[in-house]
Amino acid sequence: MDSVRKGLRSGDIEKDTYERLTCAACGEQLGTKNDPDELNTIRFCPSCDREWKKVG
Ligand SMILES: [Zn+2]
To answer: Which residues share a beta bridge with 52?
Structure first.
């Protein structure tokens, strides 16, 4: 799974005018969930189910 930072850098994730993360492909605002097996927060697109982990 890519990190949010990498997703932003590669253009898979964009920020809207309110600095919210959105999926570049769908234009959907990313949701948030916590992975119990990891310490990271997962950001996901509810439309295409792509996921990115938020590091730190
Ligand atoms: Zn998407």
So the answer is: 43
8 within domain boundaries? yes
Per the CB < 8 A criterion, the answer to whether 14 and 24 are in contact is: yes
26 in a domain, yes or no? Answer: yes
User: Which residues have their alpha-adjacent CB atom under 5 A from ion ligand 1?
Assistant: 23, 25-26, 45, 47-48
With respect to residue 11, please indicate whether it lies within any of the assigned structural domains: yes
Pairing of strands 31-34, 21-23: unpaired
Is 35 a member of any domain? Answer: yes
Q: How far apart are CA 54 and CA 16, in angstroms?
A: 18
List the pLDDT tens digit at each of the 56 positions of the chain: 999 999 999 999 999 999 999 999 999 999 999 877 778 899 999 999 999 999 86
